[in-house]
Amino acid sequence: MPPVRAEPVVPSHRVGAVSVPPGMQIAAAWSWRLLVVLAVAAVLVYLVIQLREVVIPLFVAIVVSALLVPFSNWLQRHRWPKWIAVAVAEIGVIVLVGGLLYLVITQVVSQFDNLRSQSVESYQSFQEFLRESPLQVSQQDFDAYVRTVVDSIQADSGMLVGGALSLGSSLGHILAGLLLTLFAALFILIDGAGIWRWLVHLFPRRARDAVNGAGVAGWNTLQNFVKVQILVAAIDAIGIGVGAAFIGVPLAIPIAVLVFLGSFVPIVGAVITGALAVFIALVYLGLVPALWMLGVVLVVQQIEGHVLQPLIMGSAVKVHPLAVVLAVGTGGFVGGIPGAFFAVPFVATANTMVKYVASGVWKSDRGLPPRRGLQVNDTSVAPPADPTAAPEQQRTLRRPTRTPKDRTRD
After folding, report:
1. In-domain check, residue 22
2. What are the C-alpha distances in Å from 323 to residues 13, 175, 319, 346?
3. Does 3 map to a domain?
4. CA-CA-CA-CA torsion sign (29, 32, 36, 37)
5. Alpha carbon distance 299, 305 (integer Å)
6. pLDDT tens across 92-123, in order?
7. Number of domains in the chain
8. Which residue range is the domain that position 240 belongs to?
């Protein structure tokens, strides 16, 4: 007679777990982890909102530094002293932005009288068209509609202009944010290596290689994004500005500047600034020039969407267009104009960093990113790479040998 096989005894505290199907156990494990991640993300968003007057200038400084650091390094490679290279990079941006603002202001001031008379004439012509149209809109009805629109814009101006992450409505907040941006960018240019080294050493020892490599990859992606976005924005601005000047639309230079600035908010900014150019042509020149202006805007946008974005932006950022639209929409809903501006570079940088950590390249000595030989007191770990350094200034270091004492300390 064969022996009777005894059933395994399941501890009482695991009876419930055994009775739950495997699929439900996996779903539960994923659920609580997702809740933790979402809770941390919500806390971070809340902190950003509360500290918006500091965080937004810091983010702007990081984006600006992603453009200025390679230029400063290029000057230093050509034997410029570091302080001169940093000063030229910083002052150059101030002069460039100030020049654009001066150009826009002088253009508007020089054409102010003509624009005012044309605006009044277009306004009266539009009223007459509405009165004679089948709609039969009277003067009283038109005034009531205009008053309703103005009241609605005034009521929602906070949401339309700034949103949850606006820089502040007062001139003092704007000036403080501008000064903070300039100082933060200046310190990144001067001591980016020291700042990065300090940030890396905040993490546990075993995580520093992953953090270091992810930071270098993310910084490279941000640099590529800024350079490519400036190129795309300049092409859009030149195309639409030249088209507006050829058609005879007033304020062609301010329109080009607005298109350049608006292009830094992908998809949404280009659509809004293009619609503004068509509207100005319609108000001051009539229907036919407005249609020509619309054609110019559509041609430029098609070239950007089907040629520039896939060939240039796609290779630099590697983010699907649907993800770009969703990121811009979410950023605009949460943070208004600043949120829409930072959405795409944030998503592109985070995507690169997550991919680098998930790939596990940082676990192999041969797969470590290039590093600079920085002098640090802690000799048990290799010094972190400086993501702001030029490639020629970086070199690969072998992972140091870890002793049992180091492992115990970790």
Report:
1. no
2. 44, 34, 6, 12
3. no
4. positive
5. 10
6. 888 988 888 888 888 878 777 777 777 777 77
7. 1
8. 51-151+166-402
